[in-house]
Amino acid sequence: MNQKQKALNSKQNAMIVDEIKAAGFIVYRIIQENIQYLLLQSSKNPHHWTPPKGHLEPNETELQAAYRETFEESSLKSDQLRVHDDPMSIRYQVNGKNKLVTYWLAEMSDPEAVIVTSCEHQDFRWASFDEAKKLMQFENLITLLNEAHQILAKRLNK
């Protein structure tokens, strides 16, 4: 390996080390055969809508963070969610740093469970697929929702 390749590998490794990691669930429920997605509205400007998610704590796995953050942000406990096996992820930049967010699909075991948001959020909404796409402002998140919805549509034969 020449010096140029070593420098490139070192830079790529540094980018991975500097990457911010977060995790969450794309929580959904089925009401009268319709899929609805849980979206939380941020208390901070620009008050964007996203599924529950947050940063990993030291020595925490992505899945552990997804459970913790979902509970902190929506009051949903692990026994209220049926989590799908296959994670999906998106990457983007925030404040000049790379961020990797890993999501799992999670079905509500009780579609009528009460949602209580944290101070980080000012509102929540159960949204249809089309409404969720309109509320979400980030293209990569919309793409992820499209992927999630296709998976659910196949499972539900829709």
Unreliable sequence segments? 4-15
User: The biggest beta sheet, please?
Assistant: 8 strands, mixed
Annotation field: number of helices: 4
Structural class: alpha+beta
Instruction: Report helical residue fraction.
Output: 25-40%
Intertermini distance = 52 Å
CATH topology: Nucleoside Triphosphate Pyrophosphohydrolase
Number of strands: 8
Backbone CA Rg: 17 Å
Mean pLDDT: 89
CATH architecture: Alpha-Beta Complex
* Proportion of beta-strand residues: 25-35%
How many domain regions? 1
* Assigned CATH class: Alpha Beta
Which of globular, elongated, flat, extended, rod-shaped describes the shape? globular
Query: Quick one: CATH superfamily?
Result: Nucleoside Triphosphate Pyrophosphohydrolase
Encode the helix/strand succession as letters: HEEEEHEEEEHH
Describe the structure.
Belongs to the Nudix hydrolase family. The protein is an alpha+beta fold and 158 residues long. The chain has a single domain (14-155), classed as Nucleoside Triphosphate Pyrophosphohydrolase (Alpha-Beta Complex). 33% of the residues lie in helices and 35% in strands. It has helices at residues 3-17, 62-74, 129-135, 139-155; strands at residues 20-31, 34-42, 49-50, 53-55, 81-83, 88-94, 97-108, 121-127. Strands 1, 2, 3, 4, 5, 6, 7 and 8 form an eight-stranded mixed beta sheet that branches. The chain starts with a helix and ends with a helix.
